[in-house]
Design goal:
The complex is a heterodimer of chains A (526) and B (219). Chain A has 526 residues and is an alpha/beta fold. Helices cover 36% and strands 20% of the residues of chain A. Chain A folds into 2 domains: 6-32 and 267-304 and 341-525, no CATH class; 51-181 and 202-257, 3-Layer(aba) Sandwich (Rossmann fold), CATH 3.40.50. The mean pLDDT of chain A is 96. Chain B is built from 10 helices and 8 strands. In chain B, the strands form 2 sheets. A 6-stranded parallel β-sheet of chain B has the order 3-2-1-6-7-8. A two-stranded antiparallel sheet of chain B has the order 4-5. The two termini of chain B are 28 Å apart. The model of chain B has no long low-confidence stretch (mean pLDDT 93). The chains are: A alpha/beta (526), B alpha/beta (219). Chain A binds chain B through residues 401, 403-404, 407-408, 410-411, 414, 436-443, 445-447, 449, and chain B through 4, 94, 97-98, 101-102, 105, 107, 177, 179, 194, 196, 208-209, 212, 214-219.
Chain lengths: 526, 219
């Protein structure tokens, strides 16, 4: 019986429909192309609130939460920001449900001295409405902004160096967290690179700590980000987390969701195009046509204003590492698709969203993050494409940036990338100075801009893919200069891109295409 | 080492040039004299309004003519009070943070303002800024004549003064920063490599959007 997640196309196969930003495009792929589809959504938990209560009362590697509490103690609750999940989930967000139980438990045990913090690290500050979305009206109204606030990695007076690892990595986190008797971390784990020690060690840290691992050399040693055991980034973060937990007590609560990104009305986007019913095929055509005719802001609104009906598939609580092991298992159950053999060419549609453009446009730098960062790295074992192979992506690569959220990205793309695309060079020559630009830092602190170090980190994010891939070809770019700045070639159509990919090969290239979103992760063996 | 050039009124403080002027006029030794000076300034208000819409320099000259006849002693005696009562209270909440960050980065911090020098030096001391480029009243026989000494610090002249300052101090303008809230300061913002708009007016906000200049909120 053929594997429904790995489909080999033949001459009769329907065209594939993939994302090209906030549009959908139909592409005719050659017979023999292998297309990977995501697993169907795992069944959600029937009673999420009961699962939360059970998890914190029956934790892994720790006493139950109530046994850690005593009147008069100081508690710090850190919460994952809205970059997870993608798109944001329908209300009530699972974090609201967890917080409701946690706050009730604190009240029951006489803990009054607590604060809640959105663990944004150097991401942009979330708006009040975004925080409200995550924590719910009741918690928001009772705590914002005095006891519920965004982390500020540049508030020197409120950051504290806690320790240094034996590798010289400085562990600096939010001072209130460092000085609390207990940190409770409320996580939403979308993919395997989230959660674990990363939650506190990265979510509550500043540039000083991030520099230890968000640099090109570490990024090159990740094979991949999604496989923590083979990720130098995860290894460094784990080392820092272990060192930190010698000084602070952390109770971790992790949650997992299924991959039910699209509502029933868009359910056909999950499916193999050959398996669509007549109605679904018509709906897909209609959606593709409509998106092609709508102006960009309307397309963005359609996708970004509609939250996803994710189902909660797991709640785990207790000691960070014991909890995260279970979280990873549940994530892998949802995402892993076994695949045998690498291809010469990897084809991927770049969607409209990434963790870094919630409620804004996927700018050119984020296109490269999605291509060589996320989509290339959605594997464990070995990459889907051979060393030196070609990645073909579909995206307009429009020169559009959110002027507030991504203000420092603009200068990075237009002033620094023309100087060099070499990550080591960017790191050595430009990063420190750029990351301390007072205007951008003020935008990060009092506006809603990403920290000026962030565009560098984003470029490094693509470093493993950049080192592995021979070339990247963009289909459907609306300009030539952005792809050139990113180091990409351009093609007018998929057949032209596939023809270009034949260069240097003595045979017809083997092609693998990933049908993402929803998310899948290839377990690629030789 | 780069320099950071800050416009002051509207950028670092909520007040504008009018507020300290009114404070001075209202706090003369003799209440009748205060009334007389305020009345004279009020009579010129329509003219000032037209000037403000057309040319910042003319506005400055008209406004500072209100100081005519005030003794130099009085100007200096009231400076501390005017700074404490008007300017210090009006500092934007994050103004100090931004200036401090520039200082921490080793920038030479310069206040560039159409306001009067004796007020700006007090603000510079308060913020830790290194230099002041500001307007100076002409004094004759111990009294203000109501005229400004050349050059009048306003609009495009600010850009020239910044160039001159940077040259004298050995700063590479491409490495320098400038901050302002007003469209009238576009020349000043344009001469540096790192312009930024602070709580900008509508016209400057539009320009900032077009040129992708950072827009900073200090409120």
């Amino acid at each position: 019986m053929s594997n429904p997640l790995v489909v080999t196309l033949d001459r009769k196969s329907a065209p594939r429909t993939i994302f090209a930003g906030d549009k959908l495009v139909e592409v005719d792929m050659p017979a023999g192309t292998r297309v990977l589809y995501p697993r169907p959504p795992l069944s959600p938990l029937k009673d999420v609130d009961a699962a939360i209560r059970y998890a914190i009362n029956h934790p892994h590697g720790s006493e139950p939460l109530h046994a850690l509490l005593r009147p008069g103690m100081k508690v710090f609750i850190a919460i994952d920001d809205i970059s997870l999940p993608l798109p944001p989930m329908r209300r009530p967000d699972v974090r609201e449900r967890v917080l409701t139980v946690v706050l009730q438990t604190l009240a029951d045990h006489g803990v009054e001295d607590y604060e809640m913090c959105i663990a944004t690290s150097v991401h942009r500050r979330m708006t009040a409405d975004e925080v409200r979305w995550i924590v719910g009206d009741r918690i928001f109204d009772a705590h914002w902004p005095d006891r519920l606030y965004n982390h500020d990695a540049e508030d020197a007076a409120n950051m504290q160096e806690v320790c240094t690892t034996d590798h010289g990595e400085v562990v600096e986190i939010n001072k209130r967290a460092a000085q609390s008797d207990l940190i409770i971390y409320v996580n939403l784990n979308l993919v395997p690179m989230d959660g674990g020690h990363k939650s506190v060690t990265v979510g509550l840290c500043g540039y000083k700590s991030l520099r230890a691992h968000h640099e090109p050399r570490t990024m090159r040693d990740c094979h991949s980000y999604m496989d923590p055991k083979s990720s130098a980034l995860a290894t460094s973060v784990e080392r820092m987390g272990r060192a930190l937990q010698k000084h602070v007590k952390v109770f971790t609560i992790e949650t997992t969701v299924n991959n039910n990104m699209f509502d029933k009305s868009l359910g056909f986007l999950h499916k193999n195009e050959d398996d669509l019913t007549g109605g679904e095929r018509a709906a897909l055509k209609a959606l593709t046509f409509t998106l092609s005719k709508l102006p960009q802001p309307a397309r963005q609104a359609i996708f970004q204003k509609v939250p996803s009906p994710y189902g909660v598939t797991g709640v785990f609580a207790g000691a960070t590492e014991a909890v995260h092991e279970l979280t990873l298992q549940r994530c892998n159950e949802q995402y892993v698709v076994p695949v045998k053999g690498q291809a010469d060419v990897l084809v991927a549609g770049i969607p409209y969203i990434s963790p870094y453009n919630v409620n804004s446009f996927l700018n050119p730098l984020l296109v490269s993050v999605m291509a060589q960062g996320y989509l290339f790295n959605l594997y464990r074992g070995q990459p889907l494409v051979k060393k030196g192979g070609t990645m073909i992506i579909t995206h307009p690569c429009s020169d559009i940036f959110d002027k507030e959220h991504h203000a420092p990205y603009i200068e990075f793309v237009h002033n620094l990338l023309p100087e060099t695309r070499d990550a080591m060079e960017l790191h050595k020559r430009y990063e420190a100075k750029f990351a301390s630009n007072p205007a951008y830092i003020q935008m990060y602190r009092t506006g809603h801009a990403y920290h000026p170090a962030h565009p560098f980190f984003m470029w490094y994010w693509g470093e493993a893919g950049r080192q592995w891939l021979g070339r990247v070809i963009v289909v459907g770019a609306d300009n030539e200069y952005i792809p050139k700045l990113l180091g990409y070639e351009t093609a007018r159509s998929m057949p032209e891109a596939l023809e270009m990919a034949k260069d240097g090969l003595s045979h017809d290239p083997s092609i693998t295409m990933t049908h993402i979103p929803p998310i899948l992760m290839a377990d690629c063996t030789g | 080492m780069p320099a950071s050039y800050f416009d002051v009124d509207g950028t670092l403080v909520r007040t504008n040039l009018v507020h300290p002027t009114v404070y001075y006029l209202a706090n003369q030794a003799n209440p009748l004299r205060s009334l007389k000076l305020l009345g004279r300034a009020l009579a010129r208000a329509p003219e000032m309004l037209v000037a403000e819409m057309r040319d910042r320099r003319t506005f400055n000259e008209l406004l500072f003519s209100s100081y005519e006849g005030i003794s130099q002693d009085r100007l200096l005696v009231l400076a501390d009070d005017a700074f404490e009562s008007v300017m210090k209270k009006a500092l934007h909440p994050h103004a100090r943070d931004l200036v401090k960050r520039c200082l921490d980065e080793g920038h030479e911090v310069v206040l560039v303002s159409g306001a009067l020098d004796f007020l700006m030096t007090r603000l510079a001391d308060h913020l830790g800024a290194h230099h002041v480029i500001a307007n100076r009243l002409e004094i004759k026989d111990g009294h203000a004549t109501g005229r400004l000494l050349r050059p009048v610090v306003a609009g495009p002249e600010k850009a020239r003064l910044i160039r001159e300052h940077a040259k004298a101090r050995g700063h590479d303008l491409n490495e320098c920063f400038a901050y302002s809230d007003s469209y009238s300061d576009v020349p000043m913002l344009s001469v540096v490599g790192h312009p930024a708009c602070v709580n900008p007016d509508t016209k400057l906000r539009q320009l900032a959007k077009a040129y992708s200049w950072p827009v900073v909120s200090l409120s």
